[in-house]
Amino acid sequence: MATYRKLGRITSQRKAMLRNLTTNLLYHGKISTTDTRAKETRRIAEKLITLAIKEKDNFVEETVIVKMPRKDTKGRRVKEEVNGKRVTVYDEIEKTIKKDNPSRLAARRKMLSILYPVTEVPTDGRKKRKNTVTVNMPNKLFDEIAPKYQDRKGGYTRIIKLGPRKGDGAPQVIIELV
Question: 168: which DSSP letter?
């Protein structure tokens, strides 16, 4: 007896599909798919959420000094002339950063091995390249999703049946975070 569903695909395609479904479920909070795919996605997503809850507060805050370029009113770097060369002027700023403890770092790497990178594209259509933002999915899990489910002991997802798909009759469901 297999411990997982093969979903009629070879291993690499199945893993890619499940990674994609899991990433979209955690990013959007809700997706529509077939029943068997949803059940496999649920297994992966719940393990990731449990890992995020366990390692949520496992970090140390440190204060570091960072060199940042000085900018003018238009947002351009300020340059000075030193020894006949134009050199950018830097300011030293104190910044507080979160430094992961070893177990949280291992959890972050485990999440990154499963989740795909997500890029948010602006919906207005103008300046797409300039305004795209890459979403850090492990940070989203640690900062947004894990605190929501801190008091729950599992059961972070819900599957709602929709009925058969029109084309081939496959049972359709909505899987969502509770």
Answer: T
Residues in the chain: 178
Amino acid at position 30, single letter: K
Report the C-alpha gap between 19 and 39 in whole angstroms. 13
pLDDT digits (tens, 9 = 90+) for 7-23: 999 999 999 999 999 99
Amino acid type, 16: A
Q: Which SS3 state, helix, strand or coil, does residue 147 take?
A: helix
What's the burial of 107, exposed, middle or buried (CB within 10 Å: 0-12/13-18/19+)? Answer: buried
Q: Specify the amino acid at residue 119.
A: T
Segment 72-111, tens digit of pLDDT: 988 899 999 888 899 999 999 999 999 999 999 999 999 9
Torsion sign over Cα 27, 31, 37, 40: positive
